[in-house]
Amino acid sequence: MxxxxxxxxxxxxxxxxxxxxxxxxxxxxxxxxxRNSPLMRVFDGLxxxxxxxxxxxGRRANEVKRALEEAYQQKAExxxxxxxxxALQSERLDVTLPGRPLARGRLHPLNQTLRRIFAIFAxxxxxxxxxxxxxxxxxxxxxxxxxxxxxAREMQDSFYLDLPHPPDxxxxxxxxxxxxxxxxxxxxxxxxxxxxxxxxIVLPGMCARYEQITARSEIQFQQVEGLAVGKAITFSDxxxxxxxxxxxxxxxxxxxxxxxxxxxxxxxxxEMDIECFVCGGAGCAVCKRSGWLEILxxxxxxxxxxENGGYDPRRYTGFAFGMGVERITLLRxxxxxxxxxxxxxxxxxxxxV
Length: 353
Ligand code: PHE
Fold this sequence. Notes:
The protein is α+β, with helices and mostly antiparallel strands.
């Protein structure tokens, strides 16, 4: 028996010396240390040995097993080192080479403008409120005091969706962010119906109108709506807020003006213009010779709209405005065509770091 163990040990160790790769090492392990190896059979046979031989053979068998396991571990480590050296050789790195420049993404110019708008209004106490892209006729028009068949609806020719709806309340892609006014007011009222809290919010969102696409108007565009409702809000608050906004957005020296206008959901209503960025007010093709460019519509919230939102118009007043994010971005960077924003042209987009 002892003789046999010596033989096993010797032949195993000499076979191990020949091995140069991992697969062969695994085969070696199976044949010399595996379940059916001669060594394991010696262990299996211990039981049938006479008592006086058993301890000696057992000890020797364990010795051999340990020796083989150790040799195996060593060999495995050697092979690992060799493989590593080989990999280092074949994947030689020159660490002194300059790095390759990474292509870095950046924010779309419209998102940069949006963030700036949010930051300016946040400092004035306005929170961001999000409303839905798809609206009902009721919210987009009726609750905003557009009478049925009112011509103002044609100012905002709508994309209707082919979805089931009550006969007088079709579904559409919102034509402006103003329906969010009603949704927000109703949510605020639900917080405390007896004495609704004041509202200071901006509502960003994508809008769509079925219009001809030109350098100045897209069928799809973003607006930011603003809404302030409270117990003593006046038109002066509206003007002060928006003039301050314009100064912060376009620089302290920018000239702006309010022009009387009309919207069904505000009374009185106005539009705000900024001095033309191309001609500086002298008059050119971009501003249609007027020297001014419109950036937003605004006004005092119409009593009917307050009422529809759940605010008692005898106790509350408010102002609202809606600005075109593309329009403001055009002005901010001196871009001359609105169609660049959605054309996915890197030559355009890469200019806005
Ligand atoms: N909703 C108007 C538009 O799309 C803008 C506006 C908003 C006007 C709020 C007044 C008050 O043109």
